[in-house]
Specification:
By secondary structure, this protein is mostly helical. Helix content is about 65%, strand content about 5%. It is a multi-pass membrane protein. It holds the Pfam family Sulfate_transp.
Length: about 325
Amino acid sequence: MTGAKRKKKNVLWSKMHTPHWEDFKQWCRKRLPILEWAPHYNLKENLLPDTVSGIMLAVQQVTQGLAFAILSSVHPVFGLYGSLFPAIIYAMFGMGHHVATGTFALTSLISANAVERLVPLSVQNLTTQSNTSVLGLSDFEMQRIGVAAAVSFLGGVIQVAMFVLQLGSATFLLTEPVISAMTTGAATHVVTSQVKYLLGMKIPYISGPLTFFYGIWVSTYVFTICFAANVGLLFGVVCTIAIVIARFPRAKTLSIKNIKEMEFKVKTEVDGETLKQVKIVSINNPLVFLNVKKFHTDLINIIQKENASNLLLDD
């Protein structure tokens, strides 16, 4: 019995440690999906639509890459480089047929946190920005891109280690409310970080606890106090007018033009006798009433008040 177990164990050990060419090819296909689908790619049917889709995504990635580079606190040209290489790498290692990968806002903010902390924007850096390097960029910008590249490389090493350890299965521990909360919080953080670029404000970069609430407070303060007489007031008036126009339907317009003088008169009757017409309203200028119904209502109220006062005088 012991000999049979030993023999079986030796067979399993030999299978585990004897490499085969087919096993190696299968391992390569699992790790490089491009080896699986590239030989079966239909050029006649798929080349044209894939080319059109690629051009559309490339046009989108130009502006998106520039924006994410600014969000990462590096020179905008590196956003174009960062949009090119992820797509090529994902074409070789990715398994999704309808996925466009690249940089996104959350990783850009994380990279900006390290860049601003290690290479801050100080007076000394501002004075040395005139010294250009081989790429036409200043030494300060090259230092920042070096830090961003190191952070990106370290993040890639951590992700590869998680892939080797098969830690992707741990995502089932994250419930849907947790994922939704993290997504909403990240989106809100990205929006508040871009307020200074939207309004043209110069706010120093601050990292640490309560940074999110500090950004909201500073943006609100500057927007409502410093720009209250210019941008804030104009923005409030425009928004109020737009809300009123969209919320309420337009009233009918009544125009009274090119009339030098117009009088509204009413006949009064006292004890069955018709008296002379009494002038209650006199208009000497052209008028435009935006609400016809309100105009008639006010006019009737004036007439009723005039009738009541005439009755009191006659009594």
